[in-house]
Amino acid sequence: MLDACVTQGAGLQGLSAQTAPRLVVMASHDDRPSELPLLWSLCAAWSDLGYFVVVLDATQTESPANPGLQQLLTPSGRPEEMPRETMDTAWSIYPAALGLGQLCTASQHADDAAPLEELEHLFQSYDVVLLYANADMLASSLPDSSIEPLLAISTNERSVLTAYQAMKRLLLNGRLQPTIVSMVDASDQNSLACGHKMNKSLQGCAMNFLGRPISTLSVDMQQADEDAPRDVNRLALRLLESGMPRRAGSATSPRHRAMNDNDSGKRSH
């Protein structure tokens, strides 16, 4: 489990001087039943804390009927003026497969940070940008960056196999250091034991076959005493503290500044 000492209060104290927005990346390994519950829970946790969140779903392709990142990259594209999929959530969701590819093609002869800087420009009014993309796309789009993608796994055997393949692509092709997040039910000893075993197995595979150490953690998704489970809240804060700011020295986003000025009650959770 995440360390209990990583409290919301301590995390929020450390966020006061952070630059914004923050980039959080989740790698897809075609296991949406494992990945989406964690993704939505993280977004809910950030929203409950008063942060403005946008999800760029690069597993989905933009189209005229379903505009997204590609349309936002046009000179007149503005997130606040575009229709977006909300799914009755407090955060915005845009398909992003074509747009991310377009960004990376344009930056092949430029600075490696160019795609991230463009995202920062587009979503400067948000506090958190969560990029959800498959491992191959991340490896080719953001190689050698300091981003540490999350890889969510369940106790399903297939989930472990597909996670290993994704981990291999991230480590070898993209030289990206993933963090394995096994989702467990702490009230079920079998679930806990299985999660621990999976983490150990993936760590061993990464070291023995790929020669790379990886980080793992377990998140209890069944804590029902809060809107978002306590473990998810701790992970959300940890990601805010460590998430990559896309432009060094950038100021806090306008919406976040306004919330600070208003002393938002959501931050006292």
How would you characterize the overall build of this protein?
The protein is built from 10 helices and 8 strands. The protein is of the alpha/beta class and 269 residues long. The chain has one domain (19-245): Rossmann fold (3-Layer(aba) Sandwich). A 5-stranded mixed β-sheet has the order 3-2-4-1-8. A 3-stranded parallel β-sheet has the order 5-6-7, sandwiched between helices. Helix 1 (8-15) packs parallel to helix 9 and helix 7 (157-173) runs parallel beside helix 8. The chain is globular, with a radius of gyration of 18 Å. The protein starts with 7 loop residues before the first helix and ends in an 8-residue tail after the last helix. Mean pLDDT is 78; it is low at 1-18 and 246-269.
Element layout with pairings:
Layout: H1 8-15, E1 22-28, H2 32-48, E2 53-57, H3 69-72, E3 92-95, H4 97-106, H5 114-122, E4 128-134, H6 135-141, E5 150-153, H7 157-173, E6 179-184, H8 189-210, E7 215-220, H9 230-242, E8 244-245, H10 254-261
Parallel strand pairs: 1-4, 2-3, 2-4, 5-6, 6-7
Antiparallel strand pairs: 1-8
